[in-house]
Specification:
Helix content: 25-40%
Number of helices: 3
Radius of gyration: 16 Å
Structural class: alpha+beta
Oligomer: single chain
């Protein structure tokens, strides 16, 4: 049986810093990728995952904060208001949490897995997750939000992750 599990890329992998391409034509392959991404997110005990995190440089995200699974294509924030600060973790930066300031409420436009337009209003944790995953589509990671003091504290852990990422690329 072929291996269908997606491998989550860790800090140091160049794909995490690339700007993901918009999906022009949604196919069955995209629906399969979204399902596999959801599976990988749940297996990693995550609440969100973006395609670049599994080595796919396309604008696909999945999220589930406990109220059901979202599978979104080409998501973009059209309105943001308020602010909240949360400790965020990331499946691509395991073992590291960073305080991140984000909008408290957002309005998002995207397409679902069948190409139908969807407009979502989210607040609190879900708004935070959507913003986090959309950051991934832009090549931005939580460590980019770290204060200088936090960067000093996590530099060693980041170096270890980078080393691990390099070894995973070897044949």
């Amino acid at each position: 049986m072929p291996e269908t599990r997606l491998k989550i890329k860790v800090f140091g992998d160049p794909v995490l810093r690339k700007k993901a391409k918009p999906v022009k034509r949604i196919t069955a392959k995209h629906r399969e990728i979204l399902s596999l991404m959801a599976q990988s997110m749940y297996e990693g005990s995550g609440i969100g995952l973006a395609a670049p995190q599994v080595g796919i440089s396309e604008q696909l995200i999945v999220a589930d904060t406990g109220e059901g699974l979202y599978k979104l294509i080409n998501p973009r924030i059209v309105k943001a208001q308020g602010s909240q600060v949360n400790q965020e973790g990331c499946l691509s930066v395991p073992g590291i949490c960073v305080k991140v300031k984000r909008a408290k409420k957002i309005k998002l436009e995207a397409q679902d897995e069948f190409g139908l337009p969807c407009n979502i209003e989210a607040e609190g944790l879900l708004a935070c997750v959507f913003q986090h995953e959309i950051d991934h589509l832009k090549g931005k990671l939580i460590v980019d939000y770290a204060t200088l003091l936090d960067k000093i504290k996590i530099v060693k852990a980041l170096r270890e992750l980078k080393k691990k990422a390099k070894h995973e690329d070897l044949p």
